[in-house]
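Check my protein:
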Amino acid sequence: MTFTAGKRWGVAGIGALALVLASCGSATQAPTATPTSHPSSTATLAPTATLAPTSTPAPTPTPGPLATCLAAPTGGAPTAWGFGVNEGSEDEVVGTSGTVLNTLSVTGYGDTVPVSVGVGQAGVYFYNKGTGELSVLGKSGAAQDLGTITPTGGWNDADNISLAESPSGTCWVFSVDSYDANAVATSQIYVGGTGITPTLVTTLTRPNMMSGVAAGGYQPLRWDASGVLLGSYPTEVGGAGPFIDESYSFAIVVRLNPQTGALSAPLCNGGRFADEAADGTLACITGLNTDAKIEVTKSGGSTTTIDTGSESAGEVAFVGGSSLLTYCTAATTGDGWTESLLAVQLSGSSPSPKTLIGGEPFGQLEGPRAWFKLVGTTSIAEILGGSGATSLAEVNLSTGQQTTITPADDILGVL
């Protein structure tokens, strides 16, 4: 699928997983996800070998009610019950059958417009920067008020915000980034949930660049049984090219312990972070902009290399544990680039990728987060359509067959 080069910016929040394959040429959309920084450069940065994040944690928080947040979901992993999508001037909660269950107007721009910051079993989470109100829009009724968060020191034009729901579905982690005159980021990380007042659990600092790699503020990508994954959110950067947002947000990914505020070392030291499976299997991308390969490392240390056959790769996600991997590749054309969606079984010593959707004109197989990817073990969700109307559709991972679910301009995540 082909589109003209342009600046790409991240959206926030990780809930249940779905592949966001947003299309080009859609109608103008109301703002989605986080407020973003104002770009001034067009450099695309590649990670270097070893990076150690710097942080200034707040005093170790008392566990208290946070123990509830760390509990495993009752009855095991939850089953997806719907989608969060944007359709014109409304963000919608849509059932898996395509029925619109609930809507929230996102007309207008500025601080008074609620922006979606994450998704989860509870629904689509919204934040109103003007009032500081955090809320969630569920299957029916008005959005539920979850509390007020006003960052220390107020707002500035370089702020980013995002949210991730806990595995139990009863809690959330919320991060606010701001920058000083030297572009050093301060990230205030809050935890709240059922019976838990939004509480600042740690404050982290990080420079905008580390060894020439985009760093900046910490933003939650997802919350799983092992903790909260935090990505990189630099300010004053931009660019054009396939998977441009991942070049920044996945450049330095670390894990946060939500009870202690402690950070891990970067998950990928020799390339860009791609995904991590529930069993600890890690995928990192090496050779970007030359010969992209996906290095899959099991928790025991064994490694499988997938040659993508492309200069660029992204939107990587594990399916069904760590047995299947889906990803996108890109190829440069005269007026932009084309993208393809592939899947590969990881069993055996010689994995053979299968193309599900090949490069087609007037579209885009690319989303803001690799973890907006999975619906189940047999299919994924995407936005289909080029210069005309677009729709949310299901793609079968065996056949590539695409089935329309509902009209949509963008997907916020799987609920």
Summary: The first strand starts at residue 2 and ends at 3. The chain has a mean pLDDT of 78. The chain is about 0% helix and 45% strand.
